[in-house]
Input
Amino acid sequence: MRAHNRARWLALMPAGMAGRMVDLAGVASAERGLGTVWTQEGSEDLNVNLVRFEAGEGVGVHRNDEVDVVFVGVSGSGMVVVNEEKFSLEPGRMVYVPKGSLRATRSANGEFAYLTVHRRRGPVRLASRGGTRGLDRRTQGHRKEVERMKRHSALRKLSDDHHGGLVRARRLRRGAAGEGESPQEVARAFLQFWEKDTRPHFREEEDVLLAVYARYGGDLDTEPIQEMVADHARIRGLVMELAEEAESNTVARETLRKIGEDLEAHIRLEERRVFPLMESFLSERGLNEIGALLDTE
Output
């Protein structure tokens, strides 16, 4: 562009406004998560999400009564079902879904990614509570990870709970390694945290998150959901064992280590796979229902 033409463009362009180019195929191939793996920032009008699923996975049948949606194939191949009519979605293809339609998606291979574009329906930014001073690098990384994912406000409470869970998981691992407090002290502190925070958190996820997901047609047999439920049971069993050890003053470092590692892995599962699945599957109405129910818990 010639200098004088560029100057004219700059003079006409509002301050702070700039275009952006994104290598969607590159983002999709680099991400290993499922569900929403990237969201366009900065637009007050459009909601643009890059969604990725592995073979056989996708979004179950649901109705969107609020906005028209455009699906654009990015990589791999899959299918968009609109009112029982099947449309193949591949790179370079677009499927238009009018509001009020029943829709679903399904991956045909392990690298199926597509873009969804629609008018913005509501806030999706996660507000940070407080600073990061005093948090370990893993927990600060979790904050940045959640902010990058632009967690929906309805899931904010559950995601905020995860920050505290990561801090406790690190404390358990340090106790198992013989650093800092004694195993008995670490166990006592964690069991108090468990009763006050993590046990109610698990119950909210099962009684609210999964219940609303199932109500709107979500598949409870999908792999991330099955892993989540199994994790809850396994961690509960380990905590029962820890409580017995604490009562008899025989806390094993291995028990601390196992709970710390399992709890952190579980939190990563929910942030990277379960929550994105909820955000991509549920309509704004369903997500807001989760938020409202969590507020009353």
Q: What stands out?
A: Strands lie at 35-39, 46-53, 62-63, 69-75, 78-82, 85-89, 94-97, 102-107, 112-119.
